[in-house]
Specification:
The complex is a heterodimer of chains A (808) and B (643). The two termini of chain A are 34 Å apart. Chain A is built from 14 helices and 39 strands. In chain A, helix 2 runs antiparallel to helix 3, helix 2 runs antiparallel to helix 13 and helix 12 runs antiparallel to helix 13. Chain A is α+β, with helices and mostly antiparallel strands and 808 residues long. With 643 residues, chain B is an alpha+beta fold. Among the domains of chain B are: 103 residues, no CATH class; 129 residues, no CATH class; 76 residues, Thrombin, subunit H (Beta Barrel). Chain B contains twelve helices and 24 strands. A six-stranded antiparallel β-sheet of chain B has the order 12-17-14-15-16-13, with no helix packed on it. Chain B has a four-stranded antiparallel β-sheet with strand order 5-6-7-8, with helices on one face. Chain B has a three-stranded antiparallel β-sheet with strand order 11-21-20. Classes of the chains: A alpha+beta (808), B alpha+beta (643). Chains A and B meet through helix 1, helix 2, strand 2, strand 5 and helix 5 of A and helix 3, strand 19, helix 7, helix 10 and helix 11 of B.
Chain lengths: 808, 643
């Protein structure tokens, strides 16, 4: 303590206090060092080093987190290893099965040896079941998220009851990966029946229509609302919207004509985009006023936006129309009036309750599933007029967007109302006082552009009609919203799958989810899925050894519209001849001899589908520039390939033969000669043999073994050989599955090593931050001790002496 | 002039030196008495006697005994004592708060948080495993315990500080009583100023008491002409002449806890506290502890809300036949109504023109929760609502000034709920068929006004859409109850974008609304199968377990800028900084005090060596005076006997 030398006057109490203070400080310092020494930590309290405390907590959190990731890696590594081991056994099993197949396919094998081998294969199937149902720590290895066991013998095959979920785990802050291998990838289980329709013109038409007789009976307007894309011929690559479809003739009518006429033989696909309308979602309520049977008024719906409920199906719950369902064709937001395409049976009374069950179109569903990322935009009443900024950043679905607009317009008293456009696929802003609407971006974003309502700077008079926002399907999408509101015929489907069969009536179904429940309830080992692109629905074949086929029932067109209809056209050649497929040879496979006596060859290499085979024949026929075309098509009634020779009569017979020893003509059922009754019939039709095509089968290890067993039992050499090929393919699938598991395991190992290195670094940092430097502490301890001792010693001396000791 | 006069002169010297010796003795005896000021006898030569043309001295007179004291220094010392008292009180509070953080030893809240998230990772590996499920719930319970323990300790600490305030007030009363008595005694002893130094020791005693008082409260003193000292705290008299004002404590409520505020018993006026231990204690009670508790509550609320959002939107191994929400809200009032502050409100009134149009009293009894601005996160009770102007009357003012445009919500629910929707999924447990009903939570204040969702409209919407499968009712106390209609139907929820489920507490992981009330939901604790490990009905779906674990790295706190861990680190670091600051302030104040003390001691303290010298001097003077008398006596003897 500094003492002013002039005023220096020390007193005994001052001396005492000064000494005590010094001693106290030394002792506190000693106490801290001792506390640090006894805990080994520098940071015994946050206040010693607040920043260090924060750092230490951060390091410790990091270390703990890494430890959890490493634990996850180890766990997943073990799990993938288990999957790999199981797949290794599966692969061995398939090798032995293939040896059996090759041995029994030879001439030396007898019925008796084949029956014996069949028993052996049955045993293998049981073994395979137990391998495929392998579990690791309570979770099935190939069952996704489902409860074990995922595979079970059912209906003469093996049913997959698991799911294909990827079980995601965290292996690092930004590294999330599955710790399982899906049954599809590891074992080839399940197959998808996609929405698909393909054909080729069977008659010469104009440019505004196209006829394919193999589509006869698919149901009236079954394909209206879809686009038809031409595959071959002069219109190749072009698409037109189908506006009508005649089930009687198989004729498609287009919204606008193609540039060229169809001569027959042109291949085409129908683009199965279910193209649902947008909606603000379901609503339940009550009529607030009496109305006729064609409309329903509910004031609770006012302000929800024009057309916001269009194309949805509404069910009346109480009143005269209780239980009846109708599709809404128009919604007027100002009055809350719903108009129906078909009037109800009776008028509505106030208080009649109703429900619309559908999910709102989420913003993530827009633009084909890309979604939109919204900010703000500005809407102006005429150029230079009053305007309002609409903040859409909080919007989650179309209803939120409409509400945000209408609230902003209401608050700013702008004479504009927001709703959906008449097509139900975009927004629409309507000026309520016949002015001009200007929509511009606000805050540098592209919100208006994303929503398709950006106008030119001069604005748009009366109305801004938004562009098609192309929403995808969701579980809550109503079937009535399909095809831009044309909806899906609800007559139903007949589904057969091996020994199983059933019909699914959609009468009570509103949404995709309802549909999915009905399919599940049909007990045909199939499940409904939304296709990955969100544009169509697929049916998943869950039964290995099954044979999935879907047809229309009750004269409806449900299966046609869904693109699931069983037809020869959509088959792969591998599905022909009860699954034996079609063998082609290098070079030309088929030789055609026409009525004119001309010949041409068709090469089928790479044509793996019937549609491709038909295209090849039709294209080749066109290429040889015959006097009249050869026209190939499928005859769906007999399940056979038909070929017409419509050329001029040259007196020759019309025949198809194999070339260079190719079996393709025989296997396609067309190796035959049509005798030319000279001078009578200008068109010779070659009616092929029925091709005995299977339905949708999966390419699983089970199917391969089941095929082998059945082939052995039925003593069919050709099928035994086909089964051997299937076994090879299945083995490749398993190998790929193993490779996938192995690659992932290796990646996890690398990540783990990196994390462990990182942990070490953080441990060093943590130690540097929070641990005590013992050498430093020891020095400090000694110092403080010395100071204390010196203080004590000097205090003892100073306090002893006063003048009184020396006087008297 | 005569020889007898000289004898008398000697006598004055003897008397004076005796007085000086006695005073020195007094000083020596009081060398260690706290607050004692050394005394000095004022010796003065007696005015000389005229002798012809000259004056001859008549001896010495012992004047008054004076204290050696610097009154301005005493005042500065008292101020410093007040500041030290306040600083010590706060530094003590922080030291205790720091002790609640035993994280550095690795067993605090942060390790409980870690353990919880690690358990979530383990669950992600084995979603259907009973042990893994139980473990996450157990770690959740441990986390809740850790939160509660810290919170309870903080509250207990606050209670003990209140007790210290009350004890401090008692001490002040004792001191002011004593001071009033001393004032009376001093005035009496000094005869109302006639004998200014008559009461030296009483004055020292008074000085010591004033310092003790200053340690408790900061005071100002005014000495009157009669020798009494009036003591003021702020502008109120604590001691006025011979009387003292009695203090008492008035209980106030601050953020739901009691604060004892010192006030005058007679008038009820609150004591002005500029410094002193009481000021420090109140600062701790009002600011330091609530600030820390608020931070802790924010963290707890963040954890509760985020965890519950995952749990409520997920699927357990079992789904529900019946469920009642943990929290309640008036059934006819919008779940949450957003407002924007109009103007710059002061006091307890907040005006929001965008709330105008709702009926009067709509929001009475609800809470106003500030979303943006200086008061973000604060919550006040609405006492009254005027629909015409959109004015809300609150139970107490906000901590900071509002700015126009600050956004707030009026709600009865403990957590935010926004415009959005959630899915009610009903599973037919026999067929496995799932039916999803999208329930809209409409809180966009769309026109007309009553369109926003209330608990009643949510229940009605559930009944209208899913009435064939489940029944929703609002209980008498304002909770939402959902019951499946058929024994084969079970329900759960999914995809909540509104926060409604977590906010009202339907299928919660944690019950409670802050660090003091957090606990694992009792139904979940009783049945671990309820724990949501996935988002689908698939037994081994681990989506929700992953989502629980992801909360750790999600920036969910401080308006989306901090993860749970960041927030906690900030909390620990801020506490350390504040504590270090408070300790530094206390130490430097103590240093200053020591300096002033030393200054006072240097002036007024007793130095025994000095006193020894004084003693010797006075002894010698006394001896000399006695010798003088003896000499005069000899002179007299000569005169009487020799003549």
């Amino acid at each position: 303590m500094a003492i002013d030398p002039i005023a220096a006057r020390s007193t005994n109490a001052l001396t005492r206090d000064t000494i005590l203070r010094g001693l106290n400080r030394s002792q506190l310092a000693l106490l801290l060092v001792q506390e640090q020494l006894s805990t080994g930590k520098r940071l015994v309290r946050p206040s010693i080093d607040p920043i260090g405390t924060s750092l230490a907590l951060g390091y410790r959190g990091r270390i703990d987190r890494n430890a959890a990731y490493v634990k996850n890696s180890n766990d997943a590594f073990a799990r993938l290893g288990h999957a790999d081991a199981s797949l290794g056994s599966v692969s061995d099993l398939l090798d032995s099965a293939r040896s059996i197949a090759l041995a029994q396919a030879t001439g030396t094998a007898t019925t008796a040896t084949r029956l014996g081998a069949a028993t052996e294969v049955s045993e293998m199937i049981n073994q395979l079941l137990s391998l495929a149902n392998a579990q690791f720590e309570g979770r099935p290895v190939f069952g996704g998220a489902a409860e074990a066991p995922p595979f079970a013998a059912a209906a003469g095959g093996v049913a997959f009851t698991g799911d294909l979920a990827a079980i995601l785990r965290s292996f690092g802050d930004a590294l999330v990966a599955p710790d399982n291998v899906a049954a599809t990838r590891a074992l080839g289980a399940t197959a998808l029946l996609d929405a698909q329709a393909t054909g080729s013109a069977t008659a010469a038409t104009g440019a505004a229509t196209l006829t394919d007789s193999s589509f006869v009976g698919h149901g009236t307007d079954a394909y209206a609302g879809y686009d038809l894309v031409v595959r071959t011929g002069p219109n190749a690559g072009l698409a037109r919207r189908i506006t009508a479809f005649s089930s009687a003739t198989g004729t498609f009518t287009f919204a606008s004509a193609f540039p060229s006429v169809f001569a027959g033989g042109e291949g085409f696909d129908i683009r199965m985009d279910f193209d649902p309308t947008m909606t603000r979602g379901g609503k339940a309520g009550a009529a607030t006023a009496a109305s006729g049977p064609g409309t329903l008024v509910s004031s609770a719906l006012t302000g929800d936006g024009d057309n916001a409920y269009n194309s949805l199906e509404l069910r009346v719950l109480t009143g005269a129309n209780a239980g009846a369902v109708r599709q809404v064709t128009d919604f007027d937001s100002a009055t809350g009036t719903l108009t129906f395409g078909t009037p109800f049976g009776a008028a509505f009374a106030a208080g009649d309750t109703f429900e619309i069950r559908a999910a709102a179109t989420q913003l993530g569903q827009l633009r084909g599933g890309l979604g939109v990322n919204l900010g703000s935009l500005r809407v102006q009443d005429g150029v230079g007029g009053p305007s309002v900024v609409v903040d859409l950043s909080g919007a989650k679905d179309i209803g939120d967007v409409l509400d945000a607009f209408n609230i902003a317009f209401g608050t700013a008293a702008l004479p504009v109302a927001a709703g959906l456009n008449a097509a139900g696929n975009g927004l629409e802003l309507t000026h309520t006082a016949a002015g001009t609407i200007v929509v511009s971006e606000e805050g540098g974003g592209n919100t208006a552009a994303q929503l398709g309502i950006l106008t030119a700077p001069a604005g748009s008079p009366l109305v801004v009609t938004g562009t098609d926002l192309d929403p995808t399907l969701s579980q809550g999408t109503q079937l009535a919203q399909f095809r831009g509101g044309l909806g899906l015929d609800k007559t139903g489907l007949a589904i057969s799958n091996g020994q199983l069969g059933g019909t699914v009536s959609l009468a009570g179904a509103f949404t995709v989810e309802d549909f999915s429940n009905l399919v599940r309830g049909a007990g045909v080992q199939a499940s409904l899925e939304i296709a990955p692109d969100g544009r169509s629905l697929s049916l998943r074949q869950l039964l290995s050894g099954g044979d999935l086929r879907v047809t229309n029932t009750g004269g409806g067109e449900t299966a046609s519209t869904l693109g699931w209809l069983d037809s020869l056209r959509r088959k792969d050649t591998a599905q022909l001849n009860a699954g034996s497929g079609v063998l082609t040879s290098a070079g030309p496979d088929l030789r055609f001899t026409t009525k004119t006596g001309a010949t041409f060859d068709v090469d089928l290499d790479g044509a793996t589908t019937i549609a491709a085979v038909v295209d090849r024949i039709n294209t080749a026929a066109g290429n040889v520039a015959l006097g009249s075309p050869i026209l190939a098509y499928t005859d769906e009634a007999t399940g056979a390939l038909f070929i017409d020779d419509r050329g001029p009569d040259g007196g020759s017979n019309f025949s198809v033969d194999g070339v260079d020893g190719s079996f393709a003509a025989e296997m396609l059922g067309i190796e035959t000669t049509v005798v030319n009754p000279v001078g009578i019939d200008p068109v010779l039709t070659l009616a092929g043999d029925p091709l005995n095509a299977t339905g949708l089968r999966d390419a699983s290890v089970f199917t391969a073994l089941l095929d082998l067993r059945n082939a052995l039992t039925s003593n069919d050499t050709q099928r035994i050989a086909a089964a051997a090929d299937r076994l090879s393919a299945a083995r490749n699938t398993v190998l790929n599955g193993r490779a996938e598991a192995g690659a992932r395991a290796r990646r996890l190992e690398l990540t783990k090593n990196r994390l462990e290195d990182e942990t070490l670094t953080f441990q060093v940092l943590l130690s540097q931050t929070e641990d005590l430097d013992f050498a430093d502490a020891a020095v400090r301890l000694t110092q403080e001790q010395t100071v204390l001792q010196a203080s004590l010693a000097s205090a003892a001396k100073i306090l002893q002496t006063t003048l009184f000791d020396f006087i008297g | 002039m005569s020889l007898f006069t000289n004898l008398n002169l000697g006598l004055t010297a003897l008397t004076a030196q005796q007085a000086a010796v006695q005073t020195t003795g007094h000083n020596i005896s009081n060398a260690t008495t706290p607050g004692y000021s050394r005394q000095r006898v004022d010796l003065a030569a007696i005015q000389g006697q005229r002798f012809g043309n000259t004056f001859i001295g008549r001896g010495v007179a012992a004047g008054s005994v004076r204290r050696v004291i610097d009154t301005s220094l005493e005042g500065r010392l008292r101020d410093s004592t007040s500041r030290l008292g306040a600083a010590n009180a706060r530094s003590g509070t922080f030291a205790r708060l720091e002790a609640l953080f035993n994280d550095i030893s690795g067993q605090g809240l942060s390790s409980s948080l870690d353990a919880f998230f690690v358990a979530a990772e383990t669950l992600a590996a084995r979603p259907a495993d009973a042990a893994a499920r139980g473990s996450l719930i157990e770690e959740g319970a441990a986390l809740a315990d850790a939160f509660r323990q810290v919170a309870v300790n903080i509250v207990a600490d606050r209670d003990s500080l209140n007790q210290q305030v009350r004890a401090g007030v008692d001490e002040v009363n004792r001191l002011t009583g004593e001071l009033a008595r001393l004032n009376r005694d001093i005035v009496a002893s000094e005869a109302g100023g006639a004998a200014p130094n008559a009461a030296n020791d009483l004055r020292d005693r008074r000085g010591a008491l004033l310092r003790e008082l200053a340690q408790k409260v900061s005071i100002r003193t005014v000495e009157t002409s009669t020798g009494a000292i009036n003591v003021l705290a702020g502008s109120e008299f604590l001691v006025l002449e011979g009387t003292s004002a009695t203090l008492t404590t008035v209980a106030e409520t601050d953020r739901g806890s009691r604060v004892d505020v010192p006030a005058f018993a007679a008038t009820g006026t609150k004591l002005a506290l500029g410094g002193g231990e009481l000021a420090g204690l109140l600062e701790s009670i009002r600011k330091d502890i609530p600030a820390f508790l608020d931070d802790l509550n924010d963290l707890a609320r963040g954890v509760i809300y985020e965890v519950n959002k995952v749990q409520s939107s997920g699927t357990g191994l079992v789904r529900f036949a019946s469920l009642v929400s943990n929290h309640a809200t008036p059934s006819g009032v919008p779940l949450s109504t957003a407002g924007t502050v109009t103007g710059t409100p002061a006091g307890t009134t907040v005006r929001a023109t965008d709330l105008a149009g709702y009926p009067d009293n709509t929001f009475n009894g609800l809470d106003l929760v500030v979303r943006t601005g200086a008061n973000a996160g604060q919550r006040r009770r609405v006492l009254d609502f005027d629909g015409a102007s959109g004015t809300l009357l609150l139970d107490r003012p906000f901590d900071s000034q509002f700015a126009a445009g600050d956004a707030f919500d009026v709600t009865a629910l403990p957590f935010p709920v926004t415009d959005g929707s959630f899915d009610l999924r009903v599973t037919n447990e026999t067929t496995g068929a799932v039916t999803t009903f999208n329930i809209e939570v409409d809180l966009d204040k769309s026109l007309p006004l009553p369109s926003d969702s209330t608990l009643a409209t949510i229940a009605a919407e559930i009944n209208a859409e899913a009435g064939s499968l489940v029944t929703a009712t609002v209980t008498a106390d304002g909770r939402l109850q959902i019951t499946a209609n058929s024994p084969s139907s079970r329900f759960n929820f999914a995809g909540d974008t509104s926060g409604f489920l977590a906010s009202i507490g339907l299928n919660s992981f944690f019950s409670g609304r802050d660090a003091l009330t957090i606990a694992v939901d009792s139904q979940l604790a009783a049945d671990p199968a309820r724990l949501s490990a996935g988002f689908t009905n698939a037994t081994n779906d681990n989506g929700a377990a992953q989502a629980f674990a992801a909360i750790r790295n999600a920036k969910s706190l401080l308006a989306g800028t901090a993860t749970v861990e960041d927030f906690y680190r900030g909390l620990a670091s801020a506490l350390g900084t504040r504590s270090a600051e408070a300790a530094d302030r206390a130490e430097s104040q103590s240093f200053l005090e020591a300096q002033l003390d030393a200054e006072r001691e240097r002036l007024s303290g007793v130095n025994l060596d000095e006193e020894a010298v004084n003693l010797l001097t006075h002894q010698r003077a006394y001896q000399a005076a006695a010798r003088f008398i003896a000499t005069v006596d000899t002179l007299l003897d000569t005169l009487i006997n020799q003549l």
